[in-house]
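User: Structure tokens for both sequences below?

Assistant:
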Amino acid sequence: MISMLIPDEPYLGFAALCHIAGAFCLIPALLHTRTPQGTIAWLISLLAFPYIAVPFYLILGRRTFSGYVETRRRQTDSESPWGELTDKITNCMKPYAIRSADTAGEIMQTLGDIVRLPVCRGNSCQLLIDADNAFPRIYDAIKKAERYILIEFFIIKNDSVGRNLKNLLIERAREGIHIYMLYDEIGSHKLPPGYISALRKEGVKIEPFNGKRHFLSNVLRLNFRNHRKLVVVDGSTAFIGGMNIGREYLGKGALGYWRDTFIQLHGPSVQQTQISFLEDWNWATMSKSTPSTFPRLCWDITPQPEDKTVLVLPSGPADVIPAWKTTIIALANRATHRLWISTPYFVPDEGVMSALQAAALRNVDVRILRPERADHILVKLSSFTFLRDLDTYGIQLWAYKKGFLHQKVILMDDDIATVGTANLDNRSLALNFELTAIVRDPGVCAEVQAMLEKDFYSSVRESLEDYNKKSLGFKMLCNLARLMAPVQ
């Protein structure tokens, strides 16, 4: 009898360890999971299937990025070298900081207070619709750089577009331009070491977002990604938007025509973009770099005659108050006649959905524009399940048919427009580092309105009736996909 039990003893010991680990994970799951549904799901999984649930919880269950929080604290500490630099840049923006007591002004000021950046006038903004307009403008700015270039992308591919960028940066580095480049390890997982080494060989300082930390530490951060896309040249011009570096953004991928939007900025907003990059660089280099790493950094501001009001809003899992979620809810709560949202991924949480529904009940024209084609099938399936929540309240859901729609744009009334990197899904609301330009200007809002009206013309409205006609199997798949929304 004893001999029969011996083979099972290792298994019993392993099982006991798994259940003990699951029990320990229950505490943070109860304390820190943000939704009741998420808490219940983790509790059941950790108790019933700890062998599988524990490693998944360690990677996917964490909701805060404590290491980055510490990096941000150092960068805002006026006693530290980084804090001194941040203060210098922020002080240069103060002459352009404005406060306004009207609705749009209050929204902008609240968001500025959350991210500790001033809302500034003196900016110029130009929409860059699709890669055919955005890439040439970015390349032209890089070619005209006189001091330095800051570049940050979620995805960089070693295809014709990626190689063109690499060759251009090498050319500029050989001409003495200082170049600093960040990429996300998950988004750019196919980027070969040779691409990186070729840039470093020519003096380009390129780093992965999570830096050269040890393996386990990086595994535990897999669920947190840097989704930002930005370029800053000489501290005088900045680009923010939805496109990454790859051929598909030119419409040369499997999804065909790629609909996307960038925005080009001049004025104080460039310095806000620059501060965001410096925070990310500080984290990526494990705070080993100092301001002397950027010998040509410029924070002089030339006010633009267009005099547009802009706030560049960084958001992510290091936020004390979730900046992007607060932005959407604030826009929905204060909209009076229009709230148009264009996003490739529509899987909102309950707070955002409630705000959209409340706006629709006030007779605000609430529209959600998403792509008919999908590059992430789970997100596509999940979004179908929201049709009842939308249709019942009169919120319109539109499917873009001309190609793949990837832009992240919001228009509130005729007052505020946003262009950036953040979607309306759990990743952008809670897990990804994002960057959004929030513009208060009637002219820019009119341009965004015209752009979105053209997009709606290439779209078809979806209804709950369309969903009800689907098969039972399809509906079950959609609801199963929605259960996985927190990790999509």
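Moving on to the next sequence.
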Amino acid sequence: MPSNDSPRLSVRLAAVSTLGPEDVSRWRDLADHAAEPNVFYGPDFLVPTAAHFDPDRTLRLVVVESGGTWLALMPYEMVPANRRWPHRHASNDGPILNQFTSLGVPLLREGDTRRAATGLVRAFRRFSHELGGSIEMAFVSGDGPGGAALQRAFADEGSRLHVWGGDERAAVRFAEVEDPGSFGYLPRSRAKAVRRRARRLTEAAGVPAELDSLTLDVVEDPAEFLRFELETWKADPDRDGVGFSRLREGPEWFVDVFRAHAAAGRATLLALRPAGETFYMAAFLRSGGTLFAWYDEYAEKGAQHAPGVLGRLLTVKRFAAQGDLDLLDSCMHPSLYPDQNELYPSRLRTVSFTAALGRWPGQLLLREIVALGQRRRVLAVRVRTARDERRTRAERPPTRDVRQAAESAS
């Protein structure tokens, strides 16, 4: 707990692209000492992101500091009114953040987490007008120390939350998994199928091998990853590919982010290359004891043998052997990639919510929004039920009395 003579907190809003070297240094120190790591909210990620994709300086930060030390930070963009708030408002799920980040927990300084979380919530309320009366927070960890502290601070400060989303996405908590290199956490049928695919892939490459003997190569040059992307569906506009090569300044951004993290030993590129032929590549960024699966892709030429599945399993094995990691976050949306969730033995719970920032008018408005949503859901259920009942009656065979009446009339 902080002492009573701790320096007072100060709060401010700032555009990412306007911060000077001193601020970025303080930001980096906070990211390196966060109670719950979030590589997507560190300066080595967001500063290049703003430089390449934010010419209008819409990507901003809420900052809490004390005596020159940053205690808490939350990025946001202003977004239009939606069904969760009827006015333009702040969100960590705006156009830029939604496209490039995968975790929404704010940076809260370890050792002073409660004070940092409380300061952040009070900053939100202090800037209620500038933030549009509410803040929308997507993919906040539900069971991590940062996410828990934030939600507790909202409750302590009397802010109402409208929880509108929640998922459990694939992860690896290395301390909880016995011998992840043996893939014993996979369902037996899945493990058998994966081993069969490994044999077929290596046979097609001309070097027959078993899954247990496959390894991943470390790649030093991020440009090699970008060249490989051109061989994958992610570079194909006809398939709505999501590759960096399809974004204006996307390749340059990828290289800048990777090199910024690599300079501190916090970026890794891996490739599956039986017989020197690349079938899978993956990029990882690290913050503290957490490794984030940033981006991966597989070659079309071996797609029938599921090189992506093989590559993801082998990354679990490789990083488990490293011995200095607590968590691997797959960064995969569970509803979009349900089949891939089986490849990871643990789950990371996330929650998404809207918080009203003003006093009683905002709290009352959010309560009414929640109640309206509940009434709409009840009405929708009733409409579906009535429609199903009408369909059932229409499809039901006529009763004997109806048939007899019809026969008499004829």
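User: Anything stand out in the second?

Assistant: The longest helix spans residues 360-395.
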